[in-house]
Amino acid sequence: MANHKSAEKRNRQSQVRRLRNRANRTQMRNAIKTVDAAITAGSQGDAKTALKIAIPVIAKTAAKGTIHKKNASRKVSRLTKRVNKMQVAA
Question: Model confidence over 27-63: pLDDT tens digits?
Fold first, then answer.
C-alpha cells in the first residue's frame, strides 16, 4: 500500500485511468466484433455500415491514449482490407 499522500493520490488516479481505458478498449473491441460478425455473415452492406461506425471509435480510442495511434491505424487498415475483399469476391 502507498504510505505517502502523493503516492495515495497517484494510486487513486491510476485506478480511475485504468477503468476509463478499460471502458474505451471494450467499446473499441465491440465495434470491431460487429464488423467481424457482418463479414462472417457475408452481409456486405452491414459490414460497410459497421466499418463506418468502427473507424471513429478506433480513432477516438487512440486519441485518448488508450492504444497507440499506429495500432489504431493498423486495425482500421486490416478491417478495411477485409471489407473491401468482400466486394471483390461479390
Answer: 999 999 999 999 999 999 999 999 999 999 999 999 9
Q: What is the pLDDT of residues 5-34, one digit of tens each?
A: 999 999 999 999 999 999 999 999 999 999
Is the Cβ–Cβ distance between 68 and 76 less than 8 Å? Answer: no
What CATH architecture is 5-89? Up-down Bundle (1.20)
First to last CA, the chain: 59
> Is there a contact between 44 and 90 (Cβ–Cβ < 8 Å)?
yes
* Contact partners, residue 56, CB within 8 Å, separation at least 6: none
Answer for the pair 27, 57: CB distance below 8 angstroms, yes or no.
Answer: yes
